[in-house]
Design a protein that fits this description.
By secondary structure, the chain is α+β, with helices and mostly antiparallel strands. The protein has eight helices and 18 strands.
Length: about 300
């Protein structure tokens, strides 16, 4: 039982802030299951407003009760593994964690199958996420100590994460910095927007290659907000190719070649950090996936490219 002083916030947001190791979708699910009481009364409404100084009682599910029967034999492309962590190359169309609409076929389900002891870790050891259709490198912990330390490394920007993307439009400057706060859209649940009420967010980008109407860029993040790269690039007029959520699939030229790339052109290409337990330096870099390479080949063969 906890007393809270948050004023006029949604119940699911308040509980998520109090227990950050659990995802908002997980908290929302518990509320819908009747596991949360406000001032002694069970509520089933995640968006219920909390006025301040309420008493909240949460009936946490037992670990095995919550996760039983969720293990699935889904193959992961493991690039590095030791006793404390693994690094995978995530494929497209693969969700990281279950949500209300999809409870199976995720990296979370796969981890419970291949690493049964990870059932004891929050989010089965997942320390950061990639969007469902973003490909590339992800770190997953195998012990609670390594998970906590990896989360700290991310929090204090000690893990360098580099991405590559293809955007619509010609970016004229060779380098750029986008420093704009990001918040969840007030009515569209899965959309993020630039907003003064949002969390500070900074993205650095660098032009790798220019084509007619397209630019290939690399990006590094100082923060890790949901859809950060996609929202930031859209905000300066260069949405990611294939991004159905933020307008990157509406370009007339892209529609002709959409069969080559039916997702946002975003790939987590590099990770660099010091191991949370052994403190040895880990550097991992992987090639672009075939769909992005094929799209770039098409641009090179059919358009004038220049730098």
């Amino acid at each position: 039982m906890i007393n809270i002083s948050n004023n006029r916030k949604r119940l699911d947001l308040v509980v998520t802030e109090l227990f950050p190791k659990y995802s908002r979708s997980q908290i929302k699910n518990w509320i819908l299951q009747g596991r949360v009481k406000v001032n002694g009364i069970t509520t089933f409404i995640p968006k219920k407003k909390v006025l301040g100084n309420e008493s909240i009682i949460i009936s946490f599910p037992l670990i095995k009760e919550e996760k039983k029967d969720l293990a699935q034999n889904i193959k992961l492309n493991i690039l590095y593994e030791d006793d404390y962590l693994i690094i995978i190359n995530k494929t497209a169309n693969l969700l990281v964690c279950p949500g209300i609409k999809q409870t199976e076929g995720t990296i979370f389900n796969s981890l419970l199958y291949h690493y049964p002891s990870n059932i004891l870790l929050p989010r089965a050891g997942i320390v950061h996420r990639l969007d469902k259709d973003t490909t590339g490198l992800m770190i997953i912990a195998k012990t609670i100590l390594s998970q906590n330390r990896l989360i700290e490394l991310i929090k204090y920007r000690k893990i360098i994460r580099e991405y590559e993307a293809i955007v619509i439009g010609n970016i004229k400057e060779s380098y750029g910095k986008i420093d704009k706060p990001i918040a969840r859209h007030f009515s569209k649940r899965i959309h993020m927007i630039i907003s003064s009420r949002g969390k500070p967010s900074t993205t650095h980008y660098k032009v790798i290659e220019r084509f007619h109407n397209y630019t290939r860029i690399s990006l590094r993040l100082e923060s890790g907000r949901t859809h950060q790269i996609r929202v930031h690039m859209k905000s300066i007029g260069y949405p990611l190719v294939g991004d159905t959520l933020y307008g990157g699939n509406s370009h007339e030229k892209f529609r002709v070649y959409q069969n080559l790339l039916n997702r946002q052109a975003l790939h987590a290409i590099m990770l660099e950090f010091y191991h949370p337990i052994t403190f040895t330096k880990i550097y991992c870099r992987i090639p672009l996936p075939d769909d992005m390479k094929n799209f770039l080949d098409m641009l090179k063969n059919n358009h004038i490219n220049y730098c």
